[in-house]
């Protein structure tokens, strides 16, 4: 199994697990909280069949990557991504992020520019700034995030059950072809296998201010797709704010779609993604 070392904690390496398949233009897929790189399962075959090289990895603290007690902030996450890109010698990349993974895409372009990046895609975006402040009234009140952190401290396993219910809007789609009981169970198993400390610290990362990075997204062709019924990153606080901030982006809403539209609505998301990739 391939790993790239991104740091060290005491006597051990901090290693990021990744998979690298196919050939052609490289697409780097960055997963959302609290899953892993394999959660792109409904997009990976489509991308490989279309002739792309597909690279996906597990964020530190999640999946098969190391679970250090620190580094759960977007500067570190983005440096991990940068190390992976440079280790593999990738250029002409498509960076695609889902949910929390959109933060790495946004911060990478803001910090390191588009020298290696050809296009970018954000599915259920985190940007521009999720936290409500005096100069960001469109954000979510800080008490919401404090309550989430307390719920994780009290019972991380129960919290993840509620989170994944809202991840897929199971009261609407549960038990249907959109999200089976077995697929839900797999998501919960992956979620509770993540670092307990990392799970908690990621909540603060969600409150990262990306407003200084957002302008860099206009340096490459950009696709943004989000479900109108997203309960994790409400669309009015996130995706609907971006067209006014980024010139020329391709923006699409999935009517009735929950947070994880890539799983529940691949018949909508995949053609949009593929069309975006193939356009010059």
List the helices and strands and how they pair.
Layout: E1 3-9, E2 12-21, E3 26-30, H1 44-49, E4 53-57, H2 74-87, E5 93-98, H3 101-112, E6 117-123, H4 142-168, H5 170-173, H6 181-192, H7 196-206, H8 211-214, E7 222-227, E8 250-254, H9 261-264, H10 266-278
Parallel strand pairs: 3-4, 3-5, 5-6, 6-7, 7-8
Antiparallel strand pairs: 1-2, 2-4
List keywords for this structure.
280 residues; single chain; Rossmann fold; alpha/beta; globular; oxidoreductase; EC 1.11.1.10; 18% strand; eight-stranded mixed sheet
Explain briefly what this protein structure is:
By secondary structure, this protein is α/β, with parallel strands linked by helices. 38% of the residues lie in helices and 18% in strands.
Cα Rg? 17 Å
Q: Give the C-level CATH assignment.
A: Alpha Beta
Q: Kindly identify the CATH topology.
A: Rossmann fold
How would you name the oligomeric state of the polypeptide chains in this document? Answer: single chain
CATH level 4 superfamily:
Alpha/Beta hydrolase fold, catalytic domain
Average of the residue pLDDT scores: 97
Please report which band the strand proportion falls in: under 5%, 5-15%, 15-25%, 25-35%, 35-45% or over 45%: 15-25%
Tell how many strands the DSSP assignment holds: 8
**Name of the CATH architecture:** 3-Layer(aba) Sandwich
Question: How much helical structure, as a percent, in the residues?
Answer: 25-40%
Distance between the termini: 35 Å
Into how many domains do the coordinates divide?
A: 1
Written as H for each helix and E for each strand, in order along the chain, the element string is EEEHEHEHEHHHHHEEHH
Q: Helix- and strand-based class? A: alpha/beta
